[in-house]
Each structure stands twice: as C-alpha cells, then as structure tokens.
Amino acid sequence: MAAVSRVHAARGLAAALLPDGGGPVRAWAVLRPTGVTVGHAVPASTAAWPADRPGPVLDRHLRARASSPHPWPQLADVLVDITGSQRGRRPAARAVDDLARRHPGALVVAAVDGPRHCTLRLGTAAPLTLDAISAAPAAPAASAAPACARRRWEALASLIHAWLAAGLPPHALAPAVVQPLRPAASGWPGERILLRRT
C-alpha cells in the first residue's frame, strides 16, 4: 500500500479515487481544489497515476451544473444535475441518460439523488452507469448540509473524469471507493464514497 501512502502525503489534495477489487492498488486518481470559478463553471484540476507509467497523467477539465445558463452545460466535460434530490434511483438513471444525449461532449454526467446517493454515466460510445453511495450512516445531520453533499458528488464526477482521461478502464471502478484526504479542502464530510455498477 505504498501507493496509497504517497497519495496521502501529497499536499493540497482533497480526495483519492481507488479501485476496490481487493488486490494491490494499480492506479488511483486525485483531486486538487482550484478555488476558481469561470462563469457558472469550475475548472477542475485532477491527476491519475496508472501503475504502468512513470508519472501522473494530469487532467484539467471544465465542470458545470446542468442548471447553469447557456453556454456552460454545452462546454462542460463534466456535467452534474443537482436539482433532483428527491428522485428515486430509476429517475436518476433516466436523468443521466437524458443529460448525456443532450450534451454529448460531456465525458461524465451525474444526477444527484440526495445527500447519500448519486448516479453517474461514464463515457459516450459504450457508456457505463455507476451508483455512488455515501458510506456514512443516514442521519438527520446528513440532510442539514445540502451544499456540502453537492460538492461531494461534483468532486466525485471530476475524479472519474481524471480516471477516464488517463485511459484507465472504466470497469475497474466497479467497485471502487473515494477516500477523503483533507475534508476541509474538499468541503465535504470525511466519509468514504462507494461505487458500484448499476
């Protein structure tokens, strides 16, 4: 687990995306908060470390909310719908399919179902749909910070973009975990996020 130790030692990182297949960690992705907003979009700075390469694959992409005014959703590499927090999982799955159809330039689209669940669609040619579930137990306090929950899912979508941009296989993310490294930097509570195939 020396790779994970190096991730934790890195400065300014908010969270790490790690495959959770039970074997050795062969690759991982990390997110650095930029603190910058361009219009209604956020330029995200991420990196992925494939085990077969000598260094990280750096990725800068544009992330926007689906409710942002034109032209931001059309320009986004990562598109997140935060408006359906009361939906069930089936409507969220339909929402990501609809977003992907209307915004084919987005490599990752996500629909938030509430503070503990998000559905994501990865890729365009042969898309993979994943469920993301907070590992924190459901509690009244979890619904008290919706902005924090939204940032959690937005950061997750950016981590997945880094993974795909590095040419890493999307199927390796089912299952996977997102481990917060510095919760204060990312703005979300310090719980893990679990990814699984729908």
TrEMBL record:
Superkingdom, natural source: Bacteria
Protein name from the UniProt record: Uncharacterized protein
Naturally occurring in which organism (per UniProt): Peterkaempfera bronchialis
